[in-house]
Amino acid sequence: MKRSIKQVIESIEALTFNEIELIAFEKYPDTDLEKIYPLLTFYLDDGAMTFDKNVNTFNLRFRMLDVVSTQGDKDLRRKEVISDCFGIASGFVEYLRSNDFGVNSVTSATPISSILKDGLGGVEFSVLFNIEKICLT
User: What's the pLDDT tens digit per position in 89-100?
Assistant: First the structure.
């Protein structure tokens, strides 16, 4: 389990996955279609931090994004993007769970249908993390 929010964020940013081209800590990414995709963005979820007796918790919101092609059958491509992003996100969460990131719980993934109005689609999900409580005695 990590000891601070900063440590969790920096550890996630430093990860490398074959399926994810770029991991970025930013709520509203510069969504240029020339960027490398699939892209995982994440940010602190407002108001989702708690002080508990033994551990503190905080929530990160993730978006696994890929380009929905502007050519061909957009509905078919949207289904492919959501399916692929869901599978990649599932593997990513499992990695966090099995590598001492202090995952407490995960919300269900929600499909993103071009919510950024830039030709991107994918899935969005939140992860609640535990961090070690630092005792000041």
Answer: 999 999 999 999
